[in-house]
Amino acid sequence: MLLRFNPAAALLAVGLAGLLWAGAATADDAVEVIDDLGNLVRLERPAKRIVALAPHIVEVVYAVGSGDKLVGAVNYSDFPEAAQQIPRVGTYKAFSAEAILRLNPDLVLAWYSGNGPQRVAPIQNLGIPVYFSESRTLKDIGESMEKIGILSGSKTAVTARQKFDVTLQALTATYSNRQPVSVFYQVWSDPLQTLNGDHMISDVIRLCGGRNIFSNVQSLAPKVSVESILRIDPQVIVASGMGEARPEWLDDWRRWPSLQAVKNQQLKFIPPDIIQRNTPRVLTGVKAMCEHLQDAREHYY
């Protein structure tokens, strides 16, 4: 018998799960989760004063309905609009433990690869509970939503997570088994930089039926050469950049008209905020990536 993905049934399950979870704890109950590094994080009661040390973590806190618990954030925490009013404690690479301590948080949400454990250690030494987030796959985003929801006492986190999962499953069912196309994902131009197979971007490319041409490189964000791109000759080049505008340097590839991606007009752009931030908004970026790769298939196959 052929089983089909049923979004309506999945959303019904989401609602039921959310109702069950919402009644499972009160504001005075202890809560605990395992963070993305495998550490147990236990609070005597759900957090009421949270500092988030990465813009994408701020966004996740809002997505699970706990934005009102945020008392501190880092620069560029700009989504949703309310996040722009949160007091700043520095940048994600240079934050102040003293500034964080003055905010009297009962939980700090840290980004392992971005903040660095050595920078977070002084906060831990002050006795402040720290949850490390390190999403490497799309599925990880949903899990982080639920765990941050538990730590912050959210009544809507499970529902939000499962709605995310339903959309992710639908996109996977639609695109993942299509004819593969080779992709060069360009983070920046000078230096020429990409992302390897361990980065969430590769998970996005795989979901869309693509193949990251640098998936086997050891470094998470390797610098590469123009010569290597010309040699591998990807079918699609997808650029991010720094903002909403398509970067001018994407068109620099037109200097090599023999490249498949140039010859077939497959120089694509996705705004970085919807593809490189590990938040529920990434599903908008996933959809854009899948549509770009489908356009490429129609040229090549």
Layout of secondary structure:
Layout: H1 7-22, E1 31-34, E2 40-43, E3 50-52, H2 55-63, E4 70-72, H3 97-102, E5 107-111, H4 112-115, H5 117-125, E6 130-133, H6 138-152, H7 157-175, E7 181-186, E8 188-189, E9 192-193, H8 200-207, E10 210-212, H9 226-232, E11 236-239, H10 260-263, E12 267-269, H11 282-300
Parallel strand pairs: 3-4, 3-5, 5-6, 7-10, 7-11, 11-12
Antiparallel strand pairs: 1-2, 8-9
Helix pairs in contact: 1-7, 6-7, 7-11
Task: List its salient traits.
301 residues; alpha/beta; Rossmann fold; 4-stranded parallel β-sheet; 39% helix; disordered N terminus; Cobalamin-binding protein; ABC_Transporter_SBP; signal; Vit_B12_bind_prot
What's a quick, concise take on this entry?
The chain has 301 residues and is of the alpha/beta class.
Write structural notes for this entry.
There is one protein chain. With 301 residues, the chain is of the alpha/beta class. The protein has two domains: 10-168, 3-Layer(aba) Sandwich (Rossmann fold), CATH 3.40.50.1980; 178-300, Rossmann fold, CATH 3.40.50. It has eleven helices and twelve strands. A four-stranded parallel sheet has the order 4-3-5-6, with helices on both faces. Strands 10-7-11-12 form a four-stranded parallel sheet. It starts with 6 loop residues before the first helix and ends with a helix. The model is unreliable at 1-24 (pLDDT under 50).
